[in-house]
Amino acid sequence: MKKVGLTTWRRISQVAFILFVFLMPVLNILRIDSDTHELILFGTSWSFGIQPEYFTDRTPLGALHIAGQFFLKGILPWVLFLAIFPLLGWLTGRLFCGWLCPEGALFELSDFLTLKLTGRRNLFGKRPSDPVNAKGNPLLYGAIAVLSAVVIPLAGGIALTGYFVAPKTVWHQVMTGELTFGVKAGIIGVAIYMLITSIVVRHILCRYVCAAGLMQMLFGWISPVSLRIKMDTNRISVCTDCKGCDQSCFMNVTPRKNKRDISCVNCGACIVACNKELGTGKGLFHLGFGKGCALPEENCRSLASSKTISV
Predict the structure, then answer these.
(1) Between 282 and which of 34, 150, 165, 278 could a Cys-Cys bridge form, CB atoms 3.0 to 4.6 Å apart?
(2) How far apart are CA 298 and CA 283, in angstroms?
(3) What is the rounded CA–CA span in Å between residue 283 and residue 262?
(4) What is residue 196's three-state secondary structure?
């Protein structure tokens, strides 16, 4: 049986996380109740826990109690939540961006369709790293592009509006066609945002705007243990200069420089491309934590063999 590759696992993780993001408000994992104006977290209303009688206590102890509740319920949870991305960056680099981020997956789809229609990833010009002879059937991919430009933004608008309006309400209004101003504004606003970013902005958002990506980028870059793409420099002589690793990278990284690049999202596309050129398990690239080798296993074995031979 054929072994599941990095690309397949990455697509599975992207689709699974997109479904999770879409289902969070439906399952009451996280959303804002528009009727009560309360945050719903795991099915319960999240409040500061400050009862009205607390305000009648004018003593320093009463003020301390209110301040303590506000810190525990209002400030600390946000600090812990925002700490997730620096921690992810320190341990895994920008793995979230390459393997989970819904926007990243949308931008990759846009790159793929643009490549099939125009022969380049970017609408505004060809890059040296763009794959050669990548154009496909214009009618087929044109139809897919139009369908994607309509369905995906609308689906995203409906799903994400459920974070601010009860999902049952949103779907009822969509099915009946009787949309209130708030629901209509939410769906149209999200849809326009997704359409514009996927057509015009794309990975520029990942590089320079996205706060989660920037935090991972910074902490991953300074971390001595974070996951990153590495190259087996002991076997550099087997490189055929096919440029497959360069052309596979949608973030316009040059993997053969073998240094920490802040734009690298640890997608492993260069690993797959090199294994395709040199043979499974014989590629020069691998994912590793610190000085170790993590994936793929075949490349790790080749790396260990090359080190043994060099010694």
Answers:
(1) 278
(2) 9
(3) 23
(4) helix
User: Nearest-CA neighbor of 98 among 195, 22, 23, 6?
Assistant: 6
Q: Of 100, 106, 94, give the one whose Cα is nearest residue 193.
A: 106
* Cα gap 275→62, rounded to integer Å: 66
d(CA 309, CA 303): 10
Is 155 in the same domain as 24? yes
In 138-277, at which residue ranges do the beta strands (DSSP E only) sit?
227-231
Distance CA 225, CA 216 (A): 13
Tracing tokens 């990284």 back to the chain, one arrives at 253
Residue 195 placed within a domain: yes
The DSSP bridge partners found for residue 287 are 229, 295
Domain range for 184: 6-30+86-213
Structure tokens at 165: 């309006």
Instruction: List the structure tokens of 201.
Output: 């902005």
Output the pTM of the full model: 0.86
Report residue 65 as tokens: 């109690």
* 241-282 pLDDT tens trace: 999 999 999 999 999 988 888 889 999 999 999 999 999 999
Which has the minimum average pLDDT: 44-48, 96-100, 119-123? 44-48
State the amino acid at position 228 in one-letter form: R
Residue 70's pLDDT is what? 66
Give residue-wise pLDDT tens across range 86-106: 999 999 999 999 999 999 999
